[in-house]
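thread from #wetlab-drylab

HS: before we spend reagent money on co-crystallization trials with 1-deoxynojirimycin, can we at least see a predicted complex? here's what I'd submit
DV: go for it
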Amino acid sequence: MAGGFALATTLLTPRPGRAAPPTAAHAQRIKTLLARMTLDEKIGQMHQPAGGRQKALNSKIDAAALDLVRQGGVGSYLHVAGAQFLRDLQKVAVEESRLKIPLLFAIDVIHGFRTLYPVPLAMAATFDPEAYRACARMAAVETSVSGLHWTFAPMVDVARDPRWGRVVEGAGEDPYLGSAMAVAQTEGFQTKDLAGRDTVLACVKHFGAYGAVAGGRDYDSADLSERTLNEVVMPAFHAGKTAGAGSFMTAFNDIGGVPTTANAALVRGQLRDKWGFDGIVVSDWNAIAELIAHGVAETPAQAAALALKAGVDMDMAGGVYAAHLKSAVAEDPSLLPLIDQAVGHILLTKARLGLFDDPYRFGDVAREKTVMVSAPHRAIARDAARKAVVLLKNDGALLPLAKTAKVAVVGALADDARSAIGSWKARGEETDAVTLLAALKTRLSGVTYVPGAAPRSDDLSGVAAAVEAAKAADVTLLVVGEDFDHSAESRSRADLSLPGGQKALADAVLATGKPVVLVVMGGRPLAIPDLLAKAPASLMTWLLGVESGPALADILLGEASPAGRLPMGLPRDAGGLPETYAHYPTGRPANPDLAQDTARYHDLDIGPVYPFGHGLSYASFAYSDLTLDKATIGPNDTVSVTVAVTNTGKVAADEVVQLYMRDPLAAVARPVKELRGFRRLALKPGETRRVTFKLAARQCAFWEAGRWRIQKGKIELMVGASSDDIRARAAFAISVDGWSDTPAAALLTPVTVA
Ligand code: NOJ
């Protein structure tokens, strides 16, 4: 009881960030409920069993599962779906259990529910948070009408090693871009009001440093400096929290020996106490039980106690809280108030979703039949897919293709609908997807198709036919890369060259000497430097979702100009990883002259083939008149940075204007370049627009001894079309030292266009 009262009081205290503090009504409801709940019922709220498998949703909801719900033994289910099914399941909770507490239904909606849109890495390549917001909103509609309340997205893990298969699920290598995309998704899923229409609760994951696992090996340890943790990993989490994300998930991995699921300093200390997060912290799948395998707990009861002390409210799939938390409490009654806190967070979230007022608010059997893959939803997916395509190279303006061209399409991925929809397909169906081949056949008369070779087979018997087709065609689209199952969870790869027989196929087709457009598909950057060098034109096209083919055809045929940008550099070789454009300068910076002793490999050229931010257009753009409204600002001030951008090409096109900063002299070495603003803007031929970035001194802060320090001195600015295509430079000064309370890269730069 006392615990309940203390909780209600803490819940009412305003916290930093944007999430509104709980209303008095919510706090009162929670207090009353906590006072009535037995320990078993409290632990029940913290239990999130799987209601099915990813590929067989709902399959585990049997008579025993329903009995457990009746006893108040379940707080949430994951891997469930369906408006009628979930209505029936909810009915058991709110009509047949003692306290009638509604259940929370969760599912992984990572890049769409039924209407699958481009995979998250591709969405990051749009450099268009508004496109991402629109996709997340559309996914939320489909998810919520299906009776679900909660998605395990956005994944905001910054990743600089594409050997890690989960790079497909994030926004790439940059913390600023990652923060912008985290905000867009969170707000798209939740809107400003969780109790509004068609919302779903977002889950920022995987809290800790999951993207920094050693060698890109999924689930392995991360060992990184406090500075990197705070400056690179934390910003997108902070941004997601500030955008109001209602839940967080702890990561599987440890940081320097401390598994995140037991990391009290990080979860309770930083996320809860410092950042003021009062939503649900859920473990990753079975991660509480895995504390034993990590070697920090001997028994499941100890694992449960550790996770609870760390601040983990809900146990996903492992059942450790359900089976062992009670005995942990018997041994250590000081855990009881922590249980009340955890249950308070869960009940508060249910209240914020409006479930106590109407437990059936989500789920709409009639709309469920009409909104899925509807024409408006397809249009949103197609717009995003078009925006995600990155034109890497276009020698001799080989692209766009003439509509009269005789085109050979070579490569099995060109007609792989399953891969088009990506790995997290929720309720997606491959029959909804239009492949590149299917789309081209409806748009061009002279298309020949030869699969040639596939990503999962070493069979080269189709190569000869592919070569013949290339010889007979005006131009060949060589479609190669990874399929949907080469990237994603537990899909780390040591070799990032083309899998299967595709390299031999590509070499043979390129050897014809005929014009070849390399179309690279897949969920991660691949190391294919020689193919990128040999092919006169190349595109990175990711896995683009149900509208994959039509969107790609729009780009290939010039109905839209490409403007996607790489959210991660394309490496030369897996042996050169990890790498990032935002590296430190070092005392001996990489030098092309091998006679010098510098920070590079002797058997690999310096840097990626194409870096972060790279992407070409069918138009060209001139940058001019870079001006600053002030030469010097104080630590709490902003400077407006304006640049004029002109479309000097012949077609309407988007340009992605990028602002980078560097602190050239500071108490600690600073990265050679850091993204601090961007804007994708549409320009007609000859049109000029002026883009203004309002940069705050706080965005130049660095992490020093546990604080964000704004150091006085010069800040250099670079504006351009890519991290390696800087078109204009300027500088300003910060007049005196100051301090900030926010990760610098989590602060988004307001941009205006005139
Ligand atoms: C494990 C994954 O790491 C996580 O991202 C996902 O949300 C859960 N499984 C639930 O499917």
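DV: The pocket of 1-deoxynojirimycin is lined by residues 78, 108, 152, 205, 284-285, 489 (CB under 6 Å).
HS: ok that's useful, forwarding to the group
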